[in-house]
Each structure stands twice: as C-alpha cells, then as structure tokens.
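**Sequence with structure:**
===
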Amino acid sequence: MKITGKKKKKIMVGDVAIGADSEISIQSMTNTLTHNIDATVKQIVKLTKAGAEIVRVAVPTRKDTSALKEIIKQVSVPIVADVHFHFDRAMEAIEAGADKLRLNPGNLRDRRKLKRVISAARSCNIPIRIGINAGSIRTANELKRKISREQLLKLIFKELDEYVSFFEKNRFENLVLSAKSPSVTETIDIYRELNRRYEYPLHLGLTHAGTISTGAIRSASAMSILLAEGIGDTIRVSLSGDPVEEVYVGREILSALGLRKFSVPELICCPTCGRCEVDLPKLAARIEARLRKVHKPIKVAIMGCIVNGPGEAADADIALIAGKECGFIYIDGKRVERIKPQQFLDTLMRYIRNYQKKNDR
C-alpha cells in the first residue's frame, strides 16, 4: 500500500528529521523522576535499544533541569524537555542542551515570558512542539459543565491558532504541532483538521490511551486511519506501563502499514482452536520475549496445529509446529527436525541464530 499525504515542513530534532520526506519517527517518554539521573539514563538506553528515535523527559522542577545536562551527555538519542507551568524550566532546559521543547499552551499563557522562550530557542536552533491536550484547555467554568465535541474542537483550534500566530509573529516557525484526545474519533477529527490547516509537521498520538493492551488497541485504531491517509510525521503511543512497550507497539503499527521496515523479527502465531494441544499463548509469549533481542528481519511462525500449521506457516523463514507429544521445525517451508516439547524454545532459537549466520554471509 502506497500512502501519500500533504507534505510538511522539515524540522530537525538533534539528528532526527521530522516532516517533508522523512521517515515517520517513533517517540516515547520516560516515567522515571528525571532528577534521578541513573534511573533516567538507564530507561532512555532501554528505549533506544527497543527502537525509540526521540525520547521525552518531564522537567517539572529545577532539580530535573539541573540533571538534564548530565543525562544528555550519557545518551545517544535526541532528548525533548516536557515543560508545563514554569517558564523558568523552559529556559533552563534550553541552557542544558535539550534538542527540543514541548510546551502546552493551556499551561503557559504569559506572552512576555513565552517571547523570551521563543527568542532563546531561536538562538539555539531548538524546535518547539506546541502540544495541546483536550483536557488542559478548558477554563474553570467549562470544567464545571459538559461541552459538545464541536465546542471542544472549537476551543482546541482557537487556542492553537492563537499560539501558532504568536510564534510566527515572533519569527519562529521551527514548530511541530499536536492536539491529543483520549477519544479515538475525536483524535481522528482533530488531526484531519490539523493537517488541513497547517504546514507544520504533526506529532501523532492518543493521550491517556490506557493500559498496554487497551491503549495499544485504541492507539492503533486512531493512528492507522490517520497514517493511512498520509497524516502524521512522528508518533508516540501513550501507554500506562513500561514505556518500552510504547516503542514496540509504535513499530508494529508502522510496520503493519508498510511505512517502515525494521531490522527485527516478525512473529506470526495461530489464534488456537480445539485442535491445539499445547499452551500456545504461553509458548508464543516466551518466544516473543527472546525475539526482542534479535535485530535481524526474519519471519517466525508458531503454530499449534499439526494439521493446518505447516501450510499456514509455509511463507515463514522458520516455523515451529507444536503438538502435545512432539513438534516440528520448518525452514523455508521444509520440515527439518522433529523435537520434543521440552526442546521447543531452545531448538527454535538455535535455528534462528543459525539462520541469521547463514544469511549474514
């Protein structure tokens, strides 16, 4: 599937390009206390190894921005400083060497202070994401009553238009835009309108999406529709849990749509039925965990049916057909070994390693 959309301006976050003809990048955000340098660096390294190309950190206090400079020294991925209420945190983050700022218009309204942030970011050539969350733009009176979707969208775009206009009047166009909602349908409507209105690259995401399972489904539901329409230049899947999972989900979304090809395995599993005689979900989960340490494109199939399994896994590079008494390893559609259940995991991984070595020659 070829996906084309409206081209956006290109901005640079460190050495990562967003917009224009650039690949759609994957972002995540740490959930450590940023002033805990060791814990934050450790998590950023894990995120980078998983495939995150940009990582955001929260800087709510002076302690956090003070730690930022040392964190940036120790990591290899561009770092975004997430600034909310405090103008000083933005200035400190710029001074510490952040590769990008994220500002929420609903929380930083003092135009004189904002003008100083713009001037400092322009001097250091640091881009800024104007990031609106649907829940942060309502006034005290609006929070006390329910408002319609149309009223909410009107508020979002009024706020965003005013903010973008202020940046442009102050000669700053090094921008990325986002306007997130926890609603799938609202998010789709918002980003379609963002895409129509602005030439700036769009940071795609569904805010407060949920747990790893429900959040992945909701995020994929919104993002896939938008990405298939050519909308979105960088993505972050927001999940309640280990942020490394955000990266894996984001990668899977882009891969499934054919928008990115990654040097990682593709795992295919049968959904199981009454013919399955093994605990396939448990086996597949163990194999998936092992495959996360493999950084080569290889298609692996795990099937729990010796009747249909061989045919369904015929296009896999390596397949395990698992039965109660025994299982079979297939390479490129040909059966190569019969193995016992206790050998399933280790034998499969051995064949995967050997397959990699063979194709590396």
Q: What stands out?
A: The longest strand covers residues 128-133. Residues 11-256 form a domain with the TIM Barrel fold (CATH 3.20.20.20). Residues 149-169 form the longest helix (21 residues).
